[in-house]
Structure formats: C-alpha cells, structure tokens
From TrEMBL:
Record's keyword terms, sorted: Lipoprotein, Signal
Top-rank taxon: Bacteria
Protein name: SCO0930 family lipoprotein
Lineage: Bacteria, Bacillati, Actinomycetota, Actinomycetes, Kitasatosporales
NCBIfam families for this protein: SCO0930_lipo
Signal peptide (residue range): 1-25
InterPro entries to which the protein is assigned, alphabetical: Lipoprotein_repeat (IPR005297), SCO0930-like (IPR047910)
Amino acid sequence: MKTSWRSASLMASAAAVLALTTACGQGSGTSSVGSQNVGATAPAGGYGSVGAAGAGASASPSNGYGADGQNSGAQSAAAGKLAVSQNAELGKVLTDGNGMTLYRFDEDTAEPPKSNCDGDCAKAWPPVAANDAAAGAGIDKALLGEVTRADGTKQLTIAGWPAYRYAKDTKAGDVAGQGVGGKWFALAPDGKKATLASLPGLSVRKDPKLGDIVVDKNGMTVYRFLKDVAWPKPISNCTGSCLQKWPAVGIVSKDDTKGIEKKGLMGFTRPDGVKQMTVDCWPAYTFSGDTKPGDTNGQGVGGTWYAMAPDGKPVGAPKK
C-alpha cells in the first residue's frame, strides 16, 4: 500500500525593523513510485559490508567506491542516523550517519517523489537506502520518506526529494558534488538546497581558531573596531575610505538574530546617514578582504580590527 509523503509546513516570521535609538544603555530513468514515511528511531547505521567512510578515507573499495570513483555498493550503504553539519560556504548541510554529505538532483521530482538517476548516473551518485534511516537532532522526522526505484529498491527521500551520496566524496564533510553539472546540490535539513541565504541577519559560527564569532546573513565574519565608542551612544570612527574597506553591517531586527546577546543589540544612524547595526552597542562591520563565508582575513588587522564575539567583545584582542 502506498502512502503519500506529508510535507512539513514552514513557518514564516515577520521581521520588524529594529528601532533606531540615540542612547545605548537601553538595552533520466523510469518512473519511481511509492513514497512513505520511514522510522525516526532506528539506530545509527554505517556503510555495512562496503566499509566505513570517514576522515582519512580514500576512493577505494574499502569504502564502497571503486577505483574509477564509482560506488560498488549503492544500496548496501544504509543512511543511519541523519545529522546536520555546518559548512562555511553552504550553511546547514544534511549528512548520513557517517558524516557523508547527502545531495538532491534537479531532474528528480518531490511531488510525487521520483528518481531520474539510474544506470551510470546511480554509480556516480549512489542512492541512499531508506532502511535504517533515522532523524537526528535538528531534523524533522516527518520529512523522512522513501521512494521505490525502477529496480525495486527503496531510496530515502527528504521532503520528497530522493537523496544521494557522491562517489567523489571520500571523507566526512566533503562537498565535491555541490553544483556539479548545475543540477546536483547538497541537501539542507528541510529538503531544500543548502544555502547560506537562509541564515538570520546575525548569527554565530564556531570558527576552528577563534571560537564563537558573529556572522552576517551571508555567513561573512563580523568585526569590531577598537577605536569606536559604545557608551553612552555608539560612535563609529571608521569613515570615508575606511568604510569602503570595512562596510557597516546594516540594521536587522532583534528577531532576525540567533545566538547574539540581546542587550545593546540595536541600530543607529551614522553622521554620514548610513544605518549601522551594533552588538552590545559596538558598531559592527564586515571586511572587504573576506571573499567567502568562513574567511577571517580581517582578524588583527592594524592591531585594531577583531572578529566580534556574540557578546560584542573583540575576539583575540590584547587585554588592556
């Protein structure tokens, strides 16, 4: 008996504009059919008889990939307990129980679920088996389903989208399949394409060297200038050419932030008319020298620029 996959509704929240204040102390294949919900409590699974894929693994038969970079055991690789990983360029990415990135294919369909990747395609993009799939933290178990492929096997679906691995991903965290052919994309936990566009206006990223730092909606590092003033009201001492090199972070609603200290989280209007966001009343900036999410090229520049912590403090700045 076929049961249809039930999509989960996404709740939209209205972002109110943060009020400006002057004082700071105020705080191709044949049709695949049949989609149904799969269990969310199955134990974490591995790659079974085809070996484990983890850190340090190489494209060899030991992890199920042949010497030609194709998977020799596509359906024997169980999904296990799905997890959410944070990628500096893509944001939240869905992975299997071994940390391997899961992908979706633009030529597939979600309503109804259907896989159009068979034959050689399925060798390069092994379908993720639906058996043993479980929802880990941050994943809505209602989004997990399965679709019957042309060969009769059951493939895991996320929000209706058939899930795949990529043969050239050899270790946990690899995203070599991202954007391949303009049709393959890493899966976000909600079944959409992984993208940083869904980040809040301001949020927190754990940098491997600096720890928790503030990032903007594009995942770019946010900085603080030691020559600025916070009290009794925010004053930016970065003007003219400085502001071109260190663009001011625009104002965002408090509701459009995550993990940031709310006290002193506000906006102000600079003398040049630019509206700028503050954290703990300290003006916030990005750095033109950072070219992609995860960059921290502005850290320590001139001994006056430092990544901003969630409480507004300058990360790694020398103690006075």
